[in-house]
Amino acid sequence: MKYLITAILLLVSLTASGAEKKTPCSTEEYRQFDFWVGDWEVFNPKGEKVGENTIEKILGGCSLQESWRGASGNIGHSYNIYDGATSSWHQTWVDNGGMLLKLDGGMVGDSMVMQGTTQGKSGVVHNKIRWTPAEGSVKQVWSVSTDNGESWQVIFDGLYKKKVGES
Predict the structure, then answer these.
(1) Are strands 63-70 and 75-83 parallel, antiparallel or unpaired?
(2) Domain-located, residue 44
């Protein structure tokens, strides 16, 4: 019995020491959207402040959490994650107006681009959002199509600037 316990302990010890401990979410794909992390003031093309947004890494760096507060009082949150099984990014957005938006996509050049559909009053709405980093800021453009992608209308054009004191 003594030899059996010793053998089991030796086996467990060798298995534990020989196994590589891989850190979850450690591949470079999980870092692709890190340019969006920070505390931001968001401005429209006229230079008017339209909101504030905080993007933070959570869950051991596996996910990004967005917390939006618009100048008009609307608030929203999103969770963003790279899905290794599908090799794509996913965002789920919810807000205090009852909107649910699910997007999927990935890097296109230097930009993160995600798309998804919602149900509008007169049918399916295709949503496409592009985030592009530029010299310490991030440009976000949200376009929609109600004709299956034949034409697109920009519904949000925002420039994210780091809040004073942020690097």
Answers:
(1) antiparallel
(2) yes
27: helix, strand or coil: coil
Alpha-carbon gap, residue 41 to 124, rounded angstroms: 31
**Is the pTM higher than 0.70?**
yes
The continuous run of DSSP H or E covering 137 comes out as: strand 137-145
Nearest to 157, CA basis, from 144, 142, 138, 145: 142
Instruction: Indicate which CATH number applies to the domain containing 71.
Output: 2.40.128.20
β-sheet bridge partners, residue 83:
88
Question: How many domains is the chain built from?
Answer: 1
Average pLDDT, the chain: 91
CA-based nearest residue to 36, from 105, 142, 134: 134
Give pLDDT, residue 36: 98
pLDDT band at 22 (very low <50, low <70, confident <90, very high): confident
What length is written for the chain? 167
Q: Please check whether residue 9 lies inside any domain of the structure.
A: no
